[in-house]
Amino acid sequence: MPPKRKTDSPAKAAPKKKRSSAVDDAPAASSSKATASTTKAKASSSTASTSKLTKGKSKKKEPVVISSSESESADSDVIVESPKKAKKASSNSKGKGKEEKPKSTKPAKVASKASKSSKAYAYDPVESTSTPGPESAPKPPAKSSKAKPVAKPASFEEAFPRFFATYAEPEDEGTMGGAGIEKLFEAMELSMDGAYPMILAYKVEAKPGTFGTFSRADFRRAFEPTKIASAPQLKDSLLAVHRQLFDSEASEEDFRRFYLFLFPFLKSDGAKTIPAEMAIPLLGISLGERYELGKAFVDFATAQGTAFKAVSLDVWTQLLEFCQSVEPDLTGWSEDDAWPSTIDAFVDWKKGQESTA
């Protein structure tokens, strides 16, 4: 019986196992590296995709190619190709055990619109509530180094001749006639139906018998002290005199001087009376504006019609005394008083009006 072949000793087989183990371990290590690389590549690819979805772009994922030799030898290499952008995303995902869920793109769009809107109105002074810094605040326009010359007001000596010439008669520069007076009152926006024409005549101290005209000499003498040389200035002066004469607290003496000035000014040269058609309206703008009895006398004179022909200087003067001393209900009047017959006729008419009322 032939002897049995002895198996190799364990001592000699050991080196083969070591060699075999080294060879066998190479594929395992290579496989382990490939698996790890694949895991990293997937994680980086997933993170990169998540980053791209967050930005709202729909790009396709770039393929990841893993190559290894079929022989799984020790010289086999694992090549992992991944986009560069994925590396940045993977660096942000270090230390996280789980992959983050992709964020919705709608909030990102809203935020983007909001940011655009804020940029669009960054410099809107109404919408912006922030206080601009010294650099961003608008700078005031640079002032011109040369100051504009301020026109000096014309002196009275320069302005008055032009002022009076505007309303003077074409053939007589020293006289203002009826047309010029009307033009002047239109410029002052004052009515000629009231007391203002008489106040102007009183102010310039017009000479008796010159009703309807004004002289340049009278205007200059009256208005040079106050430097009145324009229509607006003259209007203010006439309004002030009107208040001085007709306000409730106006002086009786001031009104007396004005009233007594009117008769010689209105009376024609050489005449002793003023005709009714002139006297009645003038009594209405003087006594009628100041006293209740004066207004009643105007009504009486108008009611007489053609029977009331004129007013004498005595009646004109005594009417003022009557209005200042007798009450509207005729208290203070007596039959023994020596009033002109015209005033006595007025008292009888007024009593008759009161008895029939």
UniProtKB/TrEMBL annotation:
The UniProt entry, under Pfam families, shows:
Cullin_binding (PF03556)
Q: Which GO terms describe its biological process?
A: protein neddylation
Which GO molecular function annotation, any one, does this entry have? ubiquitin conjugating enzyme binding
Q: Name one GO cellular component term.
A: ubiquitin ligase complex
Q: Where is this region: Disordered?
A: 1-153
- Composition bias, Low complexity: 23-53, 64-81, 105-123, 142-153
What PROSITE patterns does the entry give? DCUN1
Domain named DCUN1 is located at 155-351
Signal peptide: which range, if any? none
- UniProt feature coiled coil, ranges: none
Q: What does this protein do?
A: Neddylation of cullins play an essential role in the regulation of SCF-type complexes activity.
Protein name, entry field: Defective in cullin neddylation protein
Q: In the record, what lineage is assigned to the organism producing the protein? A: Eukaryota, Fungi, Dikarya, Basidiomycota, Pucciniomycotina
